[in-house]
Amino acid sequence: MPTFTVLGDDDPFLHVSLRKGESISCESNAMVMMEDTLDLAGRMQGGFLQAVMRRMANGESFFQQQIRASRGDGDCLLSPTLPGALEVLDVGSVQYCVSDDAYVASSDGVAVTAQMQNIGTALFGGTGGFFIGRSSGSGKLVVSGFGSVFTLDITPAKSVLIDNGHVVAWDSALHHELSVSTNQSQGLLGNLVNSVTSGEGIVLKFSGIGKVIVCSRNRSGFLAWLSAKLMPNRS
Question: By CB neighbour count within 10 A (0-12 exposed, 13-18 middle, 19+ buried), where does 37 fall?
Fold first, then answer.
């Protein structure tokens, strides 16, 4: 299996070592450097429909990159789209759901496909619209978070509320639902007022047993700022 190593603390590289015949998938334009024993090609993982759904789910490009060790062992360097940390996840007995723009790379035994959410979470949760990414298979999955990343352990005795803009990925066995407030004692109107005055907006409540990977910076706010910079209003 390819070896994934995170290099550096601030805005790290992802270093991947492949043996001859091995391959990885990664987000379009993720490749920074690769040795000449490796080949790079574009592909639609899972076919046309899944490519469209992943585009809607995670903001991924229509085509992914595939890097294959065709002529011998070789190394490559990858980098995520957003500035921030990387997390290498073991996929197999545990599968993960992946938020917008968080997918970076995976070993060839892992697929990330699109899964439809319920309408409430889709409209208000901010975790991929009507679709979220979900892993399957066995191997390694690499995700990125804006800023630093931290892993929370959820247990039946400790449910948590997380600002949706800080959620990177989570154990697919966890239950998650949206809320408009972190104050559980208020009614609907009070929750709406508190949501506005506290500045938290929508939060996600996770319960069950599993892990949630969060990032220190709000990805949604950064992407909105970046979009405004790249496409200013023209009047």
Answer: middle
